[in-house]
Write a structure and sequence with these properties.
Length: about 500
Amino acid sequence: MLVQARKYVSFDPLIQTVRHAANQISDHRKGPTNYSITDAVMSGIAMFSLKDPSLLAFQERRNDQNMKNIYRIENVPSDTQMREILDPLDPDQLRPLFQAAFRNVQRAGALPSYTFHQGAYLLSLDGTEYDSSKKVHCPSCLQRRHANGQITYYHQMVGAVLVHPDQRQVIPLAPEPIIKQDGQTKNDCERNASKRLLEKIREEHPHLKLIVVEDGLASNAPHIRLLRKLRMNFILGCKPDDHQHLMEQVVQASPEDRLTTLHWHDSQRDVWCEIQYVHHLVLNQSNPDVLVNFLRYRESNAAGDCVARFSWVTDLTITEENALHLVRGGRARWKVENETFNTLKNQGYQFEHNFGHGDENLSVMFAMLMMLAFLVDQIQEHCCGQFQAVRGKFTSRRAVWDHIRSHFRHFVFASMEHLLCVCVDGASLRRAATRPCDQPPRAQHSSIRPPPNAAKSDRELLPRQQISRPRSGLHRSCGSMPHSACHGC
C-alpha cells in the first residue's frame, strides 16, 4: 500500500503529472518559438518550489542540470521571456494542473484522513491581499484611494483549502483572483469572487461532499442560497452585531426550552467551556425562507470572565454528541489564514514580493503558480515519508528549503527522491560529485569514483566510464543504507 501511495504522491510522479497537465495549455503565440509554454509554467513552479527570492535569483539556475532532472524542464526561459510567455495566459488554464495533483492524492488513498463529518470535507475560504504598488498597475488591479489623493494599486485573491482540525497540512485548490470589475468595495469583490470560485469547484469536483467554513462576511442569504444550490453544507461565522434578528430569536428560544446548553471544565487549560445551540431560526427579517441552525461556543476563566467567544450558523443538525465536533470544524476556518496565507508570506514563498506585474495577467499567474508549488509541498508534508524525515531534522520550513537549495546548487541529482535521500543520510553526500551543477563532467574528474555499493542514482552523477556495479542489499534510490533503514523510501 505504501509503495502504491508513493507512486502518486511523492514529488517526482507529482511533477510528472503536473507537467503532463501543463502540456495541454494551448499556445497563443504564432510562428517559431524558443521556449514552450510548458517550460515557462514549470519554471515558475520550480522557482516557487525552491523558494528563490526573485526571478533574477532563479535565473542563475538556467543551466542547472537539476532543472531538467528534477523539474522536467527542457529549456529554462530568461526572466523577460518567462514574463512575456505567462502574461497573456488566462489564469483559468492553470486550474487543470491543480486538479491533476488532487487526483493523485485521491488515487493514493490520502484524502480520507481529511474526512470531517458524515463523509464530507471541510473547505475553508478566505480572501487575501498581495502585490501592492503606487506606480505599477494593470487593468485588473484594485484601487485604494487615500485622503492625500494618492492611489495604491493591489491584487487580491480568494483561496480555498481542504482543512481538518487534526491535520497540520492543508490541501489547496485553485484560487480565484479578485478583479476590479467585481465591485468598488472589498466586500463586493470578495463575495463575487467567492461565488465564481465555488461554482468552479463544484464543476471540477461534482461528487465531492463539502462543508464550507467561512467568516462572518459569508453569512448572508444570497450566499447561503448559492451553497444550497451547489449541494454544499456550511458552517459560517456569525457576528451578533450583524444579526440582531437572529440573536433575538436565540434569546426567545431559552424560555421555550429550545436552546440546549452544555457545560464542562477543561482542566488542561483551566477554563470553563459552554456550548449553546438551537435549530430552525430565520436568518433575517428580509429572508424568512432562509432557515439556519445557530451554534455558539464560549470560554470563561476561573473568575467568570469571558476569554473567547465564537458563533456560527449552519445547516448541519447539531446534537449533544457532535456539538463540540462542529465547533472544532468552525474554528478550523483559521487554517486558511494560518497554515496557508501566513505560510506563503513568512515561510520562504515570498508571497508579497512582486515577481512581475505585466500588462495583463502576469501577477495572477505567478500567484497561481505559487499556490500550485505550495500544494505539491503540502502533499509532500502529509504523504511522503522521505520529505517528513527531512522536515523532522529542522525546526522550520525555511531551514528545510535552505538545506535543499544548498544540495541543489552544489550537486547533480537524478531525481528529487535521490536528493531527499541524501538529505536524510548525510553520509551519502560524500559519494556525490562535487562539481557545479551547470558544469559538465570532465576527464580530470576521473579520480572521483563511486564506492562499490553505490546505487544507480548515485552513479549517474559521474561520467559513464566511471560507473561500477552496485552491491545488492542496498536501497536502489539512495544507495546509502539497507532498504529497511531508509526513512520514507
